[in-house]
Amino acid sequence: DGGITQSPKYLFRKEGQNVTLSCEQNLNHDAMYWYRQDPGQGLRLIYYSQIVNDFQKGDIAEGYSVSREKKESFPLTVTSAQKNPTAFYLCASSRDRATNEKLFFGSGTQLSVL
Amino acid sequence: QKEVEQDPGPLSVPEGAIVSLNCTYSNSAFQYFMWYRQYSRKGPELLMYTYSSGNKEDGRFTAQVDKSSKYISLFIRDSQPSDSATYLCATNSMNTGNQFYFGTGTSLTVIP
Q1: Which of A57, A91, B46, B93 could form a disulfide with A23 if both were Cys (CB 3.0 to 4.6 A apart)?
Q2: Which of B35, B48, B100, B107 should one mutate to test binding to chain A, selecting the residue with the greatest count of A CBs within 10 A?
Q3: Where is pLDDT greater, at A20 or B92?
Q4: Are the beta carbons of B43 and A106 separated by less than 8 Å?
Q5: Are the C-beta atoms of A44 and A62 separated by less than 8 Å?
Q6: Residue B109 — left, alpha, or beta (φ > 0 → left; ψ -120 to 50 → alpha)?
Q7: What is the rounded average pLDDT of the residues A77-104?
Q8: What is d(CA A49, CA A33) in angstroms, rounded to the nearest whole number?
Q9: In percent, how much of chain B has pLDDT > 70?
């Protein structure tokens, strides 16, 4: 079945530690995105990528980094510079750069601070 | 002003009721309109998608877009307890490219 796979489902970060969230898609989509979801708030865009080896900052990129070495993979690293990382992280993808009219989501990763 | 405004609720209805969920948006250039359903601690699931104005029906769900008033709605007929979730509206356009704009979500509970 085609879809977006996020792992792990739950992740814990210690003080000063970098952690990486995985996102893989087999939908053959060009564009991929990372969103952060906090209770009572809407989805906030962290980073997006429209093509391999290219990515752009979203609204809240500080303290995060990404890479896009393969079309199907878009991992997100939460660095120690992100002082409030506890949130639900969602990876998404859409078909192509020209239209981007439908956005599909993975099942999410809950990140908590120990 | 936010690009998309959505009443967070919570909304509680008895089983079988008709539910109306609504959003307003600010940019008349928006062309694509989506409704997502999100169960607790799960990823949002694309429920309905419409392009420009008009209605779209899928089973018990009807999505409606009124571009003249910048108003989008989702109607759920014969609501079921399994419809209990948070519903997110979203919009996009060719002009905004990769940028999607989301409402904050409305929490719905359908009571058996």
Answers
A1: A91
A2: B100
A3: A20
A4: yes
A5: no
A6: beta
A7: 87
A8: 6
A9: 96
What is the C-alpha separation between A109 and B59, in angstroms, rounded? 31
Give how far B7 is from chain A: nearest CA, Å: 11
Cβ A43–B99 below 8 Å, yes or no? no
Please list every residue in chain A whose beta carbon sits closer than 8 Å to the beta carbon of residue B35: none
Q: Please, which pLDDT band fits residue A95 given cuts at 50, 70 and 90?
A: confident
Could you read off the pLDDT of B16-62 as tens digits, one per residue?
Answer: 999 999 999 998 888 889 999 999 989 999 999 988 788 999 999 99
Give Cβ neighbours of residue A6 (< 8 Å, ≥ 6 apart).
A21, A22, A23, A89, A90, A91, A106, A107, A108, A109, B43
- Residue B75: Cβ-neighbour burial (10 angstroms; 0-12, 13-18, 19+): middle
Q: For residue B45, list chain A residues with Cβ-Cβ distance below 8 A.
A: 105
User: What pLDDT, on a 0 to 100 scale, did the predictor assign at position B5?
Assistant: 93
What does residue A107 show for φ and ψ, rounded to 5 degrees? Answer: -85, -5
Compute the nearest-CA separation of B78 from chain A (Å): 27
Pairing of strands B11-14, B4-6: unpaired
Average pLDDT, chain A: 92
pLDDT of amino acid A104: 93
Whether A33 contacts A103, CB under 8 Å? yes
Q: With 80 as the cut, is the pLDDT of residue A101 above it?
A: no
The structure tokens 């989509």 sit at: A29
